[in-house]
Amino acid sequence: MKYSYYPGCTLKTKAQELEKFALDSANELGIELKEQKDWQCCGAVYPMGEDEIVTKLSSVRSLAAARDRNEKLVTLCSACHHVIKRVNEDMKNKTEVRDKVNNYLQLENDYNGDGEVIHFLEMLRDDFGFKKLSEKIKTSLDGRKIGAYYGCLLLRPEKDMKFDDSENPVIIENFIDALGGIAVKYPYRTECCGGYLVTENKSITDEMTNNIIRSAAINGIQEIVTACPLCKYNLENSHEAKINNISVVYFTELLAETLNMK
């Protein structure tokens, strides 16, 4: 199994360990993730302006490069996945965007949304298989009560992301189960953590993350797993996480732990 790999900025700077867990685990599972040459920042936030073209170019370059290698493009960060996936949908469905981007980039072969970007979790679910993953683990999570935290970017808008049911997702719960944990659902698992508001109005982020952690604590959850570095940062720095002694981990940490790669 061979894929083009887009790391994104956070996993190359503040979260290098989380990337290492993923790459080591993939190698252990026989999955080859080939980092793209000269990848550029995706912009971190999907541009909402209909005439905003420039900030979509880096995503198209990565998508086209993977397409030319006849490989799927794999991401680890939900923000990168969100941006690149929605840009790909624009290239498929919006003629004006597609024409402007291709006129600007002058690629050897125009890009028309004919590539595919998937999250690492989708790769495990759809290509590798959670059943096969459960057979590969070396150290079970041994019944630890773990809550999945999805946040916003993996699931919405559902028509573009096509990741899972936006109101009742199960992919991370199935991932936890495959690793030997007990996935516990709780009401706030798809609510926003505040995201980038932490840099502008931390009080709002504090309120939102505290609600999430309290919801998890009430349901007997001992740790929370997420697929977004910013969500991880916001949740683990919340007041409620500290007083309830709830740890917040990245999904690659759990995977590496069960494969004895951590």
Automatic annotation (TrEMBL):
Gene3D superfamilies: 1.20.1050.140. The keyword Magnesium does not apply. Transmembrane segments: none annotated. Residues 4-85, 148-235 form the Cysteine-rich domain. Signal peptide: none annotated. The keyword Oxidoreductase applies. Keywords: Oxidoreductase. It comes from the Bacteria. InterPro entries: Cys_rich_dom, HdrB/HdrD_reductase. Pfam families: CCG. This is Disulfide reductase.
